[in-house]
């Protein structure tokens, strides 16, 4: 899966950044958003197979991807992941992402 390989590279870069590296973090966010916004079904499949650690970082851009997809199916996928990994506490991020639908 091409998406998985590309995301691995970006996620490794994101994980290695200092928490105060705003420019680097934003660059990773933009790259992830662009990549995950290309194909909704491929993104959903990728997210469903993602690890808890990767989802922690990907959740930072849920609202950006949601705004592009404008899809209840995408939000439903996020809700399932929230139930699967409750310790990630993604509910607020998902609620915000859902609010971008129709805007």
CATH class: Mainly Alpha
Tell me which CATH architecture applies here: Alpha Horseshoe
Task: Find the structural class using helix and strand composition.
Answer: mainly alpha
Low-confidence regions: none
- CA-CA gap between termini: 31 Å
Q: What is the succession of H and E elements?
A: HHHHHHH
Principal-axes geometry comes out as globular
Helix content: over 70%
Round the Cα radius of gyration to an integer and report it.
Answer: 13 Å
CATH topology: MgtE N-terminal fold
Mean pLDDT equals 94
Tally of separate domains: 1
Give the strand tally: 0
How many helices does DSSP assign?
7
Strand content: under 5%
- Main sheet overview: none
Structure, described:
The chain has one domain: MgtE N-terminal fold (Alpha Horseshoe). It is built from seven helices and no strands. The longest helix is centred in the N-terminal third of the chain and has 15 residues. The protein has 103 residues and is mostly helical.
Q: What topology does this entry show?
A:
Layout lengths: L1 H15 L5 H15 L3 H10 L2 H7 L3 H8 L2 H13 L6 H9 L4
Helix pairs in contact: 1-2, 3-6, 5-7, 6-7
In short:
With 103 residues, this protein is mostly helical. It is built from 7 helices and no strands. Helix 5 packs parallel to helix 7 (91-99) and helix 6 packs antiparallel against helix 7.
Descriptive labels:
103 residues; mainly alpha; MgtE N-terminal fold
């Amino acid at each position: 899966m091409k998406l998985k390989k590309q995301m691995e590279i970006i996620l490794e870069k994101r994980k290695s950044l200092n928490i105060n590296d705003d420019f680097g973090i934003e660059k990773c966010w933009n790259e992830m958003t662009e990549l995950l916004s290309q194909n909704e079904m491929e993104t959903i499949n990728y997210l469903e197979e993602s690890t808890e650690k990767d989802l922690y970082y990907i959740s930072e851009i849920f609202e950006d991807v949601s705004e592009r997809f404008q899809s209840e199916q995408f939000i439903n996928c996020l809700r399932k992941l929230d139930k699967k990994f409750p310790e990630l506490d993604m509910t607020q991020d998902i609620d915000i992402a859902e609010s971008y639908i129709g805007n």
